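Note on ligand handling. Small-molecule inputs were canonicalized before submission; formal charges were left as drawn, and no protonation-state enumeration was performed. Where a ligand contained multiple stereocentres, the stereochemistry in the source SMILES was retained. For NAP, this procedure yielded the string shown in the input block below.
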Amino acid sequence: MNTQRVGQTDLVSSRLSYGCMRIAGTWNPNEITPERETAGRAALLAAYEAGYTLFDHADIYCAGGCETIHGNLLRDTPSLRDQALIATKCGIIFGGNPNPDSPHRYDFSKAHILASAEKSLKRLNVETIDLYQLHRPDLLMNPAEIAEAFDLLHRAGKVRWFGVSNFSPSFVTALARHIGRPVAVNQVEIHLGRLDCFSDGTLDQCIADDITPLAWSPLGGGWLGEGGTVGAGDPRHHLLSLLDDLAKQHEVTRTEISLAWLLKHPSKIIPIVGSTKPEKIRQAVKADAIDLHREDWYRLLVAARQKGLP
Ligand SMILES: NC(=O)c1ccc[n+]([C@@H]2O[C@H](COP(=O)([O-])OP(=O)(O)OC[C@H]3O[C@@H](n4cnc5c(N)ncnc54)[C@H](OP(=O)(O)O)[C@@H]3O)[C@@H](O)[C@H]2O)c1
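Structure output:
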């Protein structure tokens, strides 16, 4: 596999990642029908064929059902394993687990990290998770415990690289100072409707510390993609029409322009494409070839902010 730097290491060759959160077509594992599994496999295969080389999962996506669909595909077509890196996450526990009145919470305890990794490895049908991310900041985290869990997983060959998700810069620093190994990625929500990372220090820290930002929901969950809409009178219409104009100029769809806007940033953002439609999954990779003009980049920023720059 050709590689490119992610964080402080050489990790992926593609500038786009494929997000597996929606491949089961449901969040209830009991609702995964053979038809849904077939559709999920078709999405994954389209992403492999289109050249995505980082696939993003989490243990909570359909309660492990998305990892299982991917694992079943790898069992049936083992050659795919060498074509892409697999990322997953742990640390979120939904309410009602283990008891009906248990609250929704986060857990970065050593025991939880180790047990979650074992379950993901089994479901994904792999010996190694390439990138293991802590999903949302656990306010009770003990960095020394996390370090122990990471060391055990790394030494056993079960995890190659570690990352975080939805961490503020100071939370990344608090963890990174103690774990004695690089934080490869911070996976955060970044798109033209969510600009916080550009001003809250997240992307600055990524540049300073060689942490790769992975952008989740790069199309804002769909409205920034081709055919996406906002309500009548919504001020975001202006942004969408600018995107459409640029799409026409570059002979692509609005999706690729929204993704190219992220790719232009010097922190080397990797957008995680979330469509489940093979055609859209293939189409999105065209973003990689677009280098937006600096003026157009700022034009989109100002439209997204809905106010001029100082
Ligand atoms: N770390 C976190 O906390 C976190 C949170 C959320 C997501 N994520 C990760 O980010 C990934 C992407 O998130 P996302 O699915 O919300 O991303 P997204 O790309 O912003 O949204 C994808 C959704 O938009 C729809 N869509 C509509 N028009 C589209 C178009 N032209 N092109 C592509 N999609 C279009 C898709 O529907 P169709 O399927 O019908 O195309 C799909 O429902 C997830 O799979 C997951 O890996 C992480």
